[in-house]
Specification:
about 40% helix, 8 strands, globular, single chain, 6 helices
Length: about 220
């Protein structure tokens, strides 16, 4: 046989595509896409599982799920002493968030007290949560109020109102001041409670929060 023919034949054979290579590549791409979608959907899936599977049948809930979840923005807040605080630095803890103006008159102060007490109601789980007051204007804060919140371990930041609206949305026709927001340790806003809690409403909110904390035990621990 002519050697030159062998060489041509060899080149032709080796240039053929590997059978199934395109299929394997496309399947790998689909798997990666599914993994990304699952990771992005995890907070919602956990919340839905807690509310519709873990929760005993017939038990009423107070929390309103925020769907889709709202990720923490790549922005900064300003502490009362003028320090810039990146909002993503608040991650790695559950957050209970109250939004209001800096003047914070009687009703606002009462809601902050309720927020503090609600966190304390969670007992041994309270160390897995931080509580925040996010100020949506430039009004000065009473020095006495600021000192009291600092003593009680609250985080107080001024944040641009547009940033707050994107991260912590209120239902149509409602104000952000009417809600306590729940943010998961990944920085996603995923639930809101009415900010005016009587004893019965506080008990329901406590049960909702306990369900979420119980469901996240495998991947969340106290402290950052």
């Amino acid at each position: 046989m002519n050697p030159s023919n062998d060489e041509v034949l060899g080149l032709v054979v080796h240039s053929l595509p590997t059978p199934g290579a395109d299929t394997v590549s496309s399947e790998g791409g689909r798997l990666k896409l599914l993994a990304i979608l699952l990771a992005c959907s995890l907070p919602v899936l956990v919340a839905l599982f807690v509310f519709y599977v873990v929760r005993p049948h017939g038990e009423a809930s107070l929390g309103d799920l925020v769907t889709p979840v709202r990720p923490v923005p790549q922005a900064q807040g300003l502490s009362l002493d003028g320090a810039h605080v990146p909002l993503p630095s608040l991650r790695a803890q559950w957050l209970l968030v109250k939004i209001d103006g800096g003047s914070c008159v009687q009703d606002c102060q009462k809601q902050l007290t309720v927020l503090r007490q609600f966190r304390l109601m969670l007992g041994k789980d309270m160390d897995r949560l931080d509580w925040l007051w996010l100020i949506n204007d430039q009004a000065p804060v009473s020095p006495a109020l600021a000192a009291g919140l600092k003593h009680d371990g609250a985080t107080v930041l001024r944040v641009d109102t547009n940033i707050l609206s994107a991260w912590l949305p209120a239902p149509a026709g409602k104000a952000q001041q009417d809600y306590i927001y729940v943010v998961d340790p990944m920085g996603n806003t995923m639930m809101r409670f009415p900010s005016r809690l009587d004893s019965a409403a506080a008990a329901k909110a406590k049960r909702d929060m306990e369900h979420l904390l119980r469901a996240s035990l495998t991947w969340d621990s106290p402290g950052r």
